[in-house]
Amino acid sequence: VHLMESGGGLVEPGGSLTLSCVSSISTFSNFKMSWWRQSLGNERELVAYISPAGGTTTYGDFVKGRFTISRDNSKNTVYLQMNSLQPEDTGVYYCKATQMGRPVYWGQGTQVTVSS
């Protein structure tokens, strides 16, 4: 297993969660990392992206300042801090690692459910 997500769960609307993705890839610091999500009946969509050194981040339009992606290359870990969660944020959240010339790695996903 190259990527392992954790931190999902059940949270009430307006609540917060922090997802973590730990990588066993030895050259983790060379990989672009991203978080994706997929809800029932929908295609997988990009939530957030972070460059290898962490200097560049981008977010899906729906994030609207609520989420923050970060990484700690010393711990081979990428994080997704999610605030002001809404029911439409419910889904399985996946992390993805990409580097030109290398295989694309996906984690197994962690379930996030936002419900009262």
Brief rundown of the structure:
The chain has 116 residues and is mainly beta. The chain has strands at 3-6, 9-11, 17-23, 32-38, 45-50, 57-59, 67-72, 77-82, 91-98, 105-106, 110-114.
Summary keywords:
single chain, 116 residues, mainly beta, seven-stranded mixed sheet, four-stranded antiparallel sheet, 11 strands, 49% strand, globular
What does this structure look like?
With about 120 residues, the chain is mainly beta. The chain is built from no helices and 11 strands. It has strands at about 5, 10, 15-25, 30-40, 45-50, 55-60, 65-70, 75-80, 90-100, 105, 110-115. The strands form 2 sheets. Strands 2, 4, 5, 6, 9, 10 and 11 form a 7-stranded mixed beta sheet that branches. A hairpin with a 6-residue loop joins strand 5 and strand 6 (about 55-60). The model has no long low-confidence stretch (mean pLDDT about 95).
Fold blueprint:
Blueprint: E1 3-6, E2 9-11, E3 17-23, E4 32-38, E5 45-50, E6 57-59, E7 67-72, E8 77-82, E9 91-98, E10 105-106, E11 110-114
Parallel strand pairs: 2-11
Antiparallel strand pairs: 1-3, 3-8, 4-5, 4-9, 5-6, 7-8, 9-10, 9-11
The rough form would be described as globular
Average pLDDT across residues? Answer: 96
Question: What integer value in Å does the Rg equal?
Answer: 13 Å
Q: Which residues form runs of ≥5 with pLDDT under 50?
A: none
Separation of termini?
A: 34 Å
Number of helices: 0
Q: Percent helix among the residues?
A: under 10%
* Class per helix and strand makeup: mainly beta
Give the biggest beta sheet: 7 strands, mixed
Q: How big a fraction of the residues is strand?
A: over 45%
Kindly state the number of beta strands: 11
> How would you spell out the order of helices and strands?
EEEEEEEEEEE
